[in-house]
Each structure stands twice: as C-alpha cells, then as structure tokens.
Design brief:
Blueprint (H helix, E strand, L loop, with lengths): L5 E5 L3 H12 L3 E5 L5 H19 L10 E3 L3 H5 L4 E4 L5 H14 L5 E4 L6 H4 L9 E6 L8 E6 L5 H13 L3 E4 L9 H17 L5 H9 L2 H5 L4 H8 L5 H8 L17 H15 L4 H26 L1
Parallel strand pairs: 1-2, 1-4, 2-3, 4-5, 5-6, 7-8
Antiparallel strand pairs: 6-7
Helix pairs in contact: 1-2, 2-13
Bound molecules: nicotinamide-adenine-dinucleotide (NAD).
C-alpha cells in the first residue's frame, strides 16, 4: 500500500480533470482547486462521462466521490496533501509564481509535481521552498486512461523524492519513465513535436490534407507504435540482421532533405487549413463524441496490449 494518500490537483482543466479521475479510481483522497471556480460543474460531468471507461480498464466497482473535495482557495487545497500535482496553464511566469505559493502552503515534505509538457523544472521551481521535493510528472491526455508519465528532476531534486514519486505513480497504475536530467520538451514531446512540425510544413506547402497525414500514421506506424516504439520497430525493418542492416540500407536517407524540423510560421492560411481539415475529419461529431470513441478504443487496446506485452518484455 502506497503511503501517499492525499493528492491535491491544482488547475482542473483537461489534464487536472484527468488526474482527479485517475486518483479517485485508485482510492486516493483528492483535493482540487482552480482559479476559475466555474469549472467545478464541468468536472463533475467529465467524471460521469469517463467513469464507465475508467471502471472497465481498472476493474473497479464503485466511484468513491466522497473522497473528492473541491476547495475555493489554493492554501486549503494543498495544506494537508502528501502529493501536489500542478496542472495550470503552460507558462513560465505563471507556473513560477504558482509554485512559490504552493511551496509556501504545502507540508514541508509533500512532493510537488508539475504536469508541464516541456518547461524546465529548475526554472519553474526557482522560487519554491524546499526544491529538493519538486519534480515534473508529465502525463498524456487522457490521463485517466494512458499509463505514461515522465518524471523529470530539477537540479535540486533529491533522489529520495524521485523514488517516492515513482512509487506513487505506480500506485495509480502508471508506468513512470525516469528522465535522467531536465531538457526542454523532455522525451515524448520532443518526438511528438518533430512529427507535428513536419506535418505543419507538409500542410503549409499544400502537399496533403490533415486527414491524409492522420491516415498515414493511423494505418501504418501508429498501429505498430502502441506495442513497440521507433527503435525496436526499425530493428525489425532491417530483416534478420536487425538494426545494423537497417542502418546500412536507410542510413544514407539521413542525408536527404526529408525533414525540415524548424516549425513553419503559424500564418492565418495555415491555421485555417488545420481548423478546416480537422473539422472535416470530425464529420459533424463533437469533441466529446470523438473523446468517447477514443476512450472506448483505448480501454480495449490496452487490454489487448497487455497480452502481447508479456511476450515482448
Ligand atoms: N492538454 C494536453 O494534452 C496536455 C498533456 C500533457 C501535459 N499538459 C500540461 O498540463 C498543464 C495543463 O494543461 P491543460 O491542457 O489541462 O490546460 P487547460 O487550459 O485545460 O487547464 C488549465 C487550467 O489551469 C487553471 N489555472 C491557470 N492559472 C491558475 C492558477 N494560478 N491557479 C489555479 N489554476 C490555474 C485554468 O483556470 C485552467 O482551468 C499544462 O502545463 C500543459 O502543458 C497538457
């Protein structure tokens, strides 16, 4: 049984709501706060929408809503928590200020984690008390279903807190990835960002639609990626000789102009193409509608993956 029981979630937008649902599903006591108090209503409806999927994935019977408390002040929300997961907007100035306040109100040994997608922990915790207990715990949307969390230390983070954070995330059925040291974008978002930037160039130059590019991933690399990432996949691409032969064959392509990487300018023309493209792909379905389809699929997929993971790892 993990000792970390009381979790404060600060910022209850897309990611904060996801952490709340995952923590409740694992019998944690959850305290929440958002500067926008109107969000409480959305949160309750999101918990109701997602519960059937969460219940199925984690084999749970009942949702203990009595373990959930919404506070109207930051101090009240964090003061009794063992673990604080910050999920406010992605902005250095905002997070640095917020972390200083969280550090002031939190118990001295409470772990403070940020859901940031790529900001450097040493910078966002530069004004936070007891920085040895501060980390990044970067999840993936939807947090209530996806197991990945990147744990990134700042320059002052101590190993003891990193280990305890790892144990906590495991206790809520996550698979922590321990990032050796801080780097902008951490690991997964650097990979995602490279693909995203390339896609923006292709659309900007009019070579394909958003749907074409999504199909190019969904029907090919995407199907493989949920079981094995790029490296193991490319090891198989080399035939029986594996990675060495793959590099001999495709190594020269690294010199061809296949990628641009520096992002194109987000001009109005490009923004309109992206918005119109994804609207067409949605075929009249709302974001909630599509999220329900995705969630049902992710539950089934993870059940299937478990069977094959055992053979591979
Ligand atoms: N959306 C994603 O796919 C995703 C994935 C992984 C990580 N993240 C990270 O999670 C964090 C939150 O992202 P999101 O997508 O949930 O954003 P969001 O806009 O949905 O929610 C952010 C919430 O933070 C609240 N907030 C802002 N300042 C605050 C403050 N001072 N105190 C309390 N609440 C405050 C806002 O009212 C809002 O409800 C960001 O750091 C983001 O990079 C996002």
């Amino acid at each position: 049984m993990n000792k970390i029981k009381k979790i404060a979630i600060i910022g209850t937008g897309v990611i904060g709501a996801g952490w709340i649902i995952r923590c409740l599903a694992h019998d944690k006591i959850v305290y929440a706060f958002d500067k926008d108090l109107k969000l409480k209503k959305n949160l309750v409806s999101e918990i109701k929408r997602t519960w059937p999927y969460v219940k199925k994935l984690f084999n749970k019977k009942t949702l203990k809503l009595k373990n959930f408390k919404y506070f109207t002040s930051l101090e009240e929300a964090v003061k009794d928590a063992d673990f604080i997961q910050e999920c406010a907007s992605e902005n250095y100035a905002l997070k640095t200020k917020l972390m200083a306040r969280i550090g002031k109100y939190a118990k001295p040994k409470a772990i403070i984690s940020s859901s940031s997608s790529g900001l450097l922990p040493t910078k966002i915790y530069s004004k936070c008390k007891n920085p040895q207990r501060t980390i990044i715990g970067h999840p993936f949307n939807p947090v209530y279903l996806l197991p990945a969390v990147e744990i990134v230390p700042g320059k002052k983070t101590s190993k003891k807190y990193l280990d305890n954070a790892k144990k906590f995330y495991k206790s809520i059925s996550m698979n922590p990835i321990m990032v050796k040291h801080e780097l902008p974008g951490y690991l997964s978002d650097r990979l995602q960002e490279a693909l995203w930037r390339e896609g923006l160039h292709i659309i900007n130059e009019g070579h394909a639609t958003t749907e074409d590019l999504d199909r190019a991933i969904e029907d090919g690399p995407g199907l493989r990626w949920s079981l094995m990432g790029t490296f193991l996949t490319f090891h198989l691409a080399g035939g029986k000789a594996g990675m060495r032969h793959m590099l001999e064959q495709f190594g020269p392509a690294l010199k061809l102009p296949w990628t641009k990487l520096k992002a194109p300018k987000l001009s109005n023309k490009l923004i309109n193409r992206l918005v119109a493209g994804t609207k067409k792909q949605s075929k009249g379905k709302s974001v909630t509608n599509i999220a329900n389809i995705r969630d049902e699929y992710l539950v089934e997929l993870q059940k299937l993956r478990k069977k094959y993971e055992k053979k591979l790892r």
